[in-house]
Amino acid sequence: MKNKQPIGVLDSGVGGLTVVKTMLTELPDEDFVYFGDTAHLPYGSKTPEQLITYARNIIQFFNTFPVKAVVIACGTHSSVTLQHIINDYPLPLIGVVKAAARSAAAATTNHRVGVLATHATVMSGTFTREIRSLQPECKVMEVACAKFVPLVESGKLDDDDTRQAVEEYIGPLVDQGIDTLVLGCTHYPFLAPLIREYVGEQVNLVDPAYETVDELKRLLESQNLAQGSNPHPQRQFYVSGHHESFYTVGKLLIGDVIQKVEQVSLD
Hints:
Helix 2 packs across helix 3 and helix 8 packs across helix 9. By secondary structure, this protein is of the alpha/beta class. It folds into 2 domains: 7-96 and 210-263, Rossmann fold (3-Layer(aba) Sandwich), CATH 3.40.50; 97-208, Rossmann fold (3-Layer(aba) Sandwich), CATH 3.40.50.1860. It has 11 helices and 10 strands. The protein is globular. It is 45% helix and 16% strand. The strands form 2 sheets. Strands 4-3-1-2-9-10 form a 6-stranded parallel sheet, with helices on both faces. It has a 4-stranded parallel sheet with strand order 6-5-7-8, sandwiched between helices.
Protein backbone atom coordinates (compact mmCIF):
# COMPACT_ATOMS: atom_id res chain seq x y z
CA MET A 1 0.00 0.00 0.00
CA LYS A 2 1.44 3.36 -1.03
CA ASN A 3 1.78 6.28 1.34
CA LYS A 4 1.93 9.38 -0.84
CA GLN A 5 2.58 11.90 1.93
CA PRO A 6 5.96 13.63 1.73
CA ILE A 7 8.86 13.34 4.15
CA GLY A 8 9.86 16.47 6.07
CA VAL A 9 13.58 17.28 6.23
CA LEU A 10 14.82 20.13 8.43
CA ASP A 11 18.13 21.85 9.11
CA SER A 12 19.47 25.29 9.94
CA GLY A 13 20.49 25.87 6.33
CA VAL A 14 22.03 23.92 3.45
CA GLY A 15 23.62 21.23 5.66
CA GLY A 16 20.62 18.93 5.49
CA LEU A 17 21.09 18.79 1.72
CA THR A 18 23.73 16.12 2.42
CA VAL A 19 20.82 13.96 3.62
CA VAL A 20 18.70 15.01 0.64
CA LYS A 21 21.52 14.05 -1.73
CA THR A 22 21.54 10.55 -0.27
CA MET A 23 17.73 10.35 -0.31
CA LEU A 24 17.72 11.12 -4.03
CA THR A 25 19.80 7.99 -4.60
CA GLU A 26 18.41 5.65 -1.95
CA LEU A 27 14.75 6.78 -1.91
CA PRO A 28 14.24 8.22 -5.41
CA ASP A 29 10.46 7.77 -5.42
CA GLU A 30 9.78 9.68 -2.21
CA ASP A 31 8.33 13.19 -2.16
CA PHE A 32 9.88 15.52 0.39
CA VAL A 33 9.58 19.00 1.87
CA TYR A 34 12.85 20.62 2.97
CA PHE A 35 13.02 23.49 5.45
CA GLY A 36 16.23 25.44 6.03
CA ASP A 37 15.93 27.71 9.06
CA THR A 38 18.35 30.25 7.65
CA ALA A 39 16.88 33.16 9.64
CA HIS A 40 18.35 31.61 12.80
CA LEU A 41 21.80 30.60 11.55
CA PRO A 42 24.08 29.51 13.12
CA TYR A 43 22.39 26.99 15.42
CA GLY A 44 25.60 26.16 17.28
CA SER A 45 25.41 29.34 19.37
CA LYS A 46 21.72 29.03 20.31
CA THR A 47 20.31 27.93 23.68
CA PRO A 48 18.40 24.64 24.06
CA GLU A 49 15.21 26.64 24.66
CA GLN A 50 15.63 28.53 21.40
CA LEU A 51 16.39 25.34 19.48
CA ILE A 52 13.31 23.55 20.85
CA THR A 53 11.12 26.48 19.77
CA TYR A 54 12.62 26.49 16.26
CA ALA A 55 12.08 22.74 15.87
CA ARG A 56 8.47 22.86 17.06
CA ASN A 57 7.69 25.69 14.64
CA ILE A 58 9.15 23.80 11.69
CA ILE A 59 7.32 20.56 12.53
CA GLN A 60 4.09 22.56 12.87
CA PHE A 61 4.76 23.90 9.36
CA PHE A 62 5.38 20.35 8.09
CA ASN A 63 2.06 19.25 9.55
CA THR A 64 0.24 21.58 7.15
CA PHE A 65 1.17 19.28 4.24
CA PRO A 66 1.05 16.87 6.19
CA VAL A 67 4.25 14.79 6.27
CA LYS A 68 4.54 11.10 7.19
CA ALA A 69 7.96 11.35 8.91
CA VAL A 70 10.49 14.02 9.81
CA VAL A 71 14.24 13.73 9.34
CA ILE A 72 16.05 16.05 11.75
CA ALA A 73 18.95 16.49 9.32
CA CYS A 74 20.89 18.62 11.78
CA GLY A 75 23.47 17.47 14.31
CA THR A 76 22.63 20.27 16.74
CA HIS A 77 18.90 19.56 16.77
CA SER A 78 19.54 15.82 16.94
CA SER A 79 21.83 16.13 19.95
CA VAL A 80 20.10 18.94 21.86
CA THR A 81 16.44 19.10 20.81
CA LEU A 82 15.23 15.67 19.73
CA GLN A 83 15.08 14.14 23.22
CA HIS A 84 12.70 16.92 24.35
CA ILE A 85 10.21 16.62 21.48
CA ILE A 86 10.32 13.03 20.22
CA ASN A 87 7.28 11.92 22.22
CA ASP A 88 5.18 14.99 21.37
CA TYR A 89 4.24 13.98 17.82
CA PRO A 90 2.44 10.94 16.38
CA LEU A 91 4.82 10.69 13.42
CA PRO A 92 8.38 9.28 13.40
CA LEU A 93 11.23 11.72 14.06
CA ILE A 94 14.67 10.53 12.96
CA GLY A 95 17.88 12.29 14.01
CA VAL A 96 21.43 11.92 12.74
CA VAL A 97 23.40 11.28 15.96
CA LYS A 98 22.49 7.70 16.86
CA ALA A 99 23.09 6.39 13.35
CA ALA A 100 26.46 8.16 13.13
CA ALA A 101 27.46 6.91 16.60
CA ARG A 102 26.68 3.32 15.61
CA SER A 103 28.80 3.66 12.49
CA ALA A 104 31.71 5.20 14.42
CA ALA A 105 31.62 2.54 17.13
CA ALA A 106 31.68 -0.18 14.46
CA ALA A 107 34.46 1.46 12.43
CA THR A 108 37.09 2.21 15.08
CA THR A 109 39.76 -0.37 15.83
CA ASN A 110 42.00 1.65 18.16
CA HIS A 111 39.07 3.15 20.12
CA ARG A 112 40.10 6.74 19.43
CA VAL A 113 37.26 8.65 17.80
CA GLY A 114 37.15 12.32 16.85
CA VAL A 115 33.90 14.23 16.45
CA LEU A 116 33.54 17.52 14.58
CA ALA A 117 30.38 19.36 15.61
CA THR A 118 28.85 22.70 16.56
CA HIS A 119 29.40 24.28 19.96
CA ALA A 120 25.90 23.34 21.14
CA THR A 121 26.39 19.71 20.11
CA VAL A 122 29.77 19.46 21.83
CA MET A 123 28.38 21.00 25.01
CA SER A 124 25.55 18.43 25.03
CA GLY A 125 28.03 15.53 25.06
CA THR A 126 25.55 13.43 23.09
CA PHE A 127 28.04 11.93 20.65
CA THR A 128 30.36 10.85 23.46
CA ARG A 129 27.50 9.23 25.38
CA GLU A 130 26.12 7.44 22.33
CA ILE A 131 29.49 6.12 21.13
CA ARG A 132 30.60 5.03 24.62
CA SER A 133 27.27 3.28 25.20
CA LEU A 134 28.30 0.99 22.34
CA GLN A 135 32.07 0.96 22.92
CA PRO A 136 32.72 1.86 26.60
CA GLU A 137 36.50 1.76 26.11
CA CYS A 138 36.43 4.44 23.40
CA LYS A 139 38.18 7.73 23.92
CA VAL A 140 35.92 10.28 22.20
CA MET A 141 37.30 13.73 21.45
CA GLU A 142 34.75 16.34 20.36
CA VAL A 143 35.81 19.61 18.70
CA ALA A 144 33.53 22.62 18.16
CA CYS A 145 34.01 23.95 14.62
CA ALA A 146 32.49 27.42 14.61
CA LYS A 147 33.90 28.39 11.20
CA PHE A 148 32.64 25.42 9.17
CA VAL A 149 28.93 26.25 8.86
CA PRO A 150 29.47 29.87 7.66
CA LEU A 151 32.04 28.61 5.13
CA VAL A 152 29.65 26.00 3.70
CA GLU A 153 26.70 28.41 3.73
CA SER A 154 28.75 30.82 1.62
CA GLY A 155 29.84 28.06 -0.78
CA LYS A 156 33.52 28.20 0.23
CA LEU A 157 34.24 24.49 -0.01
CA ASP A 158 37.88 24.70 -1.10
CA ASP A 159 39.70 27.96 -0.44
CA ASP A 160 42.49 29.11 1.88
CA ASP A 161 40.19 30.00 4.78
CA THR A 162 38.54 26.58 4.62
CA ARG A 163 41.86 24.75 4.48
CA GLN A 164 43.13 26.71 7.49
CA ALA A 165 39.97 25.86 9.43
CA VAL A 166 40.34 22.15 8.58
CA GLU A 167 43.91 22.17 9.88
CA GLU A 168 42.93 24.14 13.00
CA TYR A 169 40.13 21.80 14.04
CA ILE A 170 41.42 18.42 12.88
CA GLY A 171 45.16 18.76 13.51
CA PRO A 172 44.87 18.15 17.28
CA LEU A 173 42.68 15.08 16.67
CA VAL A 174 45.20 13.59 14.24
CA ASP A 175 47.92 14.25 16.83
CA GLN A 176 45.83 12.22 19.31
CA GLY A 177 45.92 9.24 16.95
CA ILE A 178 42.24 8.98 15.97
CA ASP A 179 41.35 6.28 13.45
CA THR A 180 37.73 7.43 13.01
CA LEU A 181 36.34 10.93 12.49
CA VAL A 182 32.63 11.73 12.74
CA LEU A 183 31.32 14.63 10.65
CA GLY A 184 28.83 15.49 13.38
CA CYS A 185 27.05 18.34 11.60
CA THR A 186 25.28 17.76 8.29
CA HIS A 187 27.06 20.76 6.76
CA TYR A 188 30.46 19.12 7.19
CA PRO A 189 30.24 16.32 4.57
CA PHE A 190 30.39 19.05 1.92
CA LEU A 191 33.96 19.59 3.21
CA ALA A 192 34.75 15.86 3.11
CA PRO A 193 37.14 16.06 0.12
CA LEU A 194 39.31 18.61 1.96
CA ILE A 195 39.06 16.69 5.22
CA ARG A 196 40.00 13.43 3.48
CA GLU A 197 42.97 15.13 1.87
CA TYR A 198 44.14 16.32 5.30
CA VAL A 199 43.65 13.09 7.33
CA GLY A 200 44.63 10.61 4.61
CA GLU A 201 43.09 7.24 3.83
CA GLN A 202 43.94 5.69 7.21
CA VAL A 203 41.17 7.56 9.05
CA ASN A 204 37.54 6.42 8.70
CA LEU A 205 35.20 9.31 7.89
CA VAL A 206 31.65 8.88 9.20
CA ASP A 207 29.02 10.80 7.23
CA PRO A 208 25.74 10.79 9.17
CA ALA A 209 23.70 11.24 5.99
CA TYR A 210 24.22 7.69 4.74
CA GLU A 211 23.47 6.06 8.08
CA THR A 212 20.41 8.24 8.65
CA VAL A 213 18.85 7.60 5.25
CA ASP A 214 19.42 3.87 5.72
CA GLU A 215 17.53 4.09 9.02
CA LEU A 216 14.76 6.10 7.31
CA LYS A 217 14.50 3.52 4.53
CA ARG A 218 14.07 0.68 7.03
CA LEU A 219 11.45 2.67 8.95
CA LEU A 220 9.38 3.43 5.85
CA GLU A 221 9.39 -0.23 4.88
CA SER A 222 8.62 -1.59 8.35
CA GLN A 223 5.73 0.83 8.95
CA ASN A 224 4.28 0.59 5.42
CA LEU A 225 5.02 4.25 4.78
CA ALA A 226 6.98 3.83 1.54
CA GLN A 227 5.77 5.71 -1.52
CA GLY A 228 6.28 2.93 -4.05
CA SER A 229 6.76 3.67 -7.73
CA ASN A 230 6.52 7.42 -8.35
CA PRO A 231 7.55 8.71 -11.80
CA HIS A 232 7.18 12.39 -10.84
CA PRO A 233 8.42 12.91 -7.26
CA GLN A 234 7.77 16.35 -5.76
CA ARG A 235 10.67 18.13 -4.03
CA GLN A 236 9.83 21.40 -2.28
CA PHE A 237 12.31 23.75 -0.60
CA TYR A 238 11.52 26.43 1.98
CA VAL A 239 13.67 28.75 4.08
CA SER A 240 12.97 31.20 6.89
CA GLY A 241 15.58 33.74 5.75
CA HIS A 242 16.61 35.10 2.36
CA HIS A 243 15.99 32.50 -0.32
CA GLU A 244 18.47 33.77 -2.92
CA SER A 245 21.65 32.61 -1.18
CA PHE A 246 20.12 29.22 -0.30
CA TYR A 247 19.10 28.76 -3.93
CA THR A 248 22.56 29.66 -5.24
CA VAL A 249 24.56 27.56 -2.77
CA GLY A 250 22.02 24.74 -2.80
CA LYS A 251 22.29 24.34 -6.57
CA LEU A 252 26.08 24.38 -6.25
CA LEU A 253 25.84 21.54 -3.71
CA ILE A 254 23.14 19.25 -5.15
CA GLY A 255 22.36 20.60 -8.61
CA ASP A 256 19.10 21.09 -10.46
CA VAL A 257 16.88 19.19 -8.03
CA ILE A 258 16.39 22.66 -6.51
CA GLN A 259 14.08 24.42 -8.95
CA LYS A 260 12.52 26.96 -6.58
CA VAL A 261 13.00 28.11 -2.99
CA GLU A 262 10.22 29.85 -1.09
CA GLN A 263 10.65 32.05 1.98
CA VAL A 264 8.31 31.39 4.92
CA SER A 265 8.42 33.20 8.27
CA LEU A 266 7.63 30.95 11.24
CA ASP A 267 8.26 33.51 14.03
